[in-house]
Specification:
- With 289 residues, the chain is α+β, with helices and mostly antiparallel strands.
- It has eight helices and 15 strands.
- Strands 7, 8, 9, 10, 11, 12, 13, 14 and 15 form a nine-stranded mixed β-sheet that branches. A six-stranded antiparallel β-sheet has the order 2-1-6-5-3-4.
- Strand 11, helix 6 and strand 12 form a beta-alpha-beta unit.
- It is globular, with a radius of gyration of 19 Å.
- The model has no long low-confidence stretch (mean pLDDT 96).
- Bound molecules: N-(5'-phosphopyridoxyl)-D-alanine.
- The site of N-(5'-phosphopyridoxyl)-D-alanine has 15 residues, from helix 6 and strand 13.
């Protein structure tokens, strides 16, 4: 069951007009929210980021937080899996094709759910491969825009090279992955690039940094150079759907000793524990450092 502009229906019945600005211009923003045991994970943070994205494209939020929460609850209840990946999407609506914003047009609101498949054991045990590429996206990567063509092409480069992700480099520094955030372990310190307009402020990224702070894992938020990426002891990938994964090969060469490292193992365990705490209603972590 999906939600489209006020109605719930099976996805096969959902239709949008071809003049929707999402279709014509990619003029819209989205969120992906993981749901564990039918409870949305870090919902407030995802809805806050949605507001940031809507502000970034100058589109009024069509729903108050309470309304979003109610819509999402109905979608969760209307779908089978206990663990789901919610996708919500807002576009500037339907109007005659013209780049300028249309006047008095209602936004299109779409929500769907897919079963949330946690990464296969093999990825956790042996790690995944990644490649690097130049980050050729726009300068507002903090906006979770539906116009994802650069990300699509960058991610496909990885697939074509039998890898899982593309690590993006801009002006000698790492930004993020094509569809994930990236952490580097160097001299036993967890390094994370600072949140700015060059990367998406990941919700999983925040959780990892909060866990590191709470457990006194040495970590630094600062620019990470290409050289540090290439000589890293560990590389970690995070996203709402992949949680946390070890990257053990980069551009065909082993990362560190080529096996998932100690910091990955620790953060993976902490993340799983934290999920259980949250599911039981005991969300405790907040920003600490
Ligand atoms: N993408 N950076 C980019 C470019 C992303 O697309 C994503 C996630 C992230 C990680 O953010 P979070 O931890 O909040 O999921 C970082 C989602 C999952 C997607 O587009 O499907």
């Amino acid at each position: 069951m999906i939600y489209l502009n006020g109605d719930f229906m099976p996805i096969e019945e959902a239709r949008i007009p071809v003049l929707d600005r999402g279709f014509i211009f990619g003029d819209g923003v989205y969120e992906v929210i993981p749901v564990y045991s039918r409870k949305p994970f870090r919902l407030a943070e995802h809805l806050r980021r949605l507001q940031h994205s809507l502000d970034g494209i100058r589109l009024r939020n069509p729903h108050a937080i309470g309304e979003w929460t109610h819509l999402l609850e109905q979608i969760i209840a209307g779908n089978e899996s206990n663990d789901q990946s919610l996708y919500l999407h807002v576009t500037r609506g339907v109007a005659k094709r013209d780049h300028a914003f249309p006047k008095a047009v209602s936004p299109t609101v779409f929500i769907m759910s897919n079963p949330l498949l946690t990464p296969p054991e093999e990825w956790l045990e042996t790690g995944v491969a990644a490649i690097t590429s130049t980050d050729n996206r726009w300068l507002r990567c903090d906006v979770k825009a539906i116009s994802l063509l650069p990300n699509v092409l960058l991610r496909q480069m990885a697939i074509d090279a039998d890898a899982m992700e593309t690590v993006l480099l801009r002006d000698g520094y790492m930004t993020e992955g094509a569809a994930s955030n990236i952490f580097v372990v160097k001299d036993d310190v967890l390094l994370a690039p600072p949140k700015n307009h060059l990367m998406l402020p990941g919700i999983t990224y925040d959780v990892i940094l909060e866990l590191a702070a709470a457990r006194k894992i040495p970590h630094e938020v600062r620019e990470v150079s290409e050289e540090e990426v290439r000589s890293a002891e560990e590389l970690l990938l995070t996203s709402s759907t992949k949680e946390i994964l070890p990257i053990t090969r980069l551009d065909g060469k082993p990362v560190g000793n080529g096996r998932p490292g100690a910091l990955f193992a620790m953060l993976y365990e902490l993340y799983q524990e934290y999920k259980i705490t949250v599911m039981r209603g005991g969300d405790t972590l907040v920003e600490t450092s």
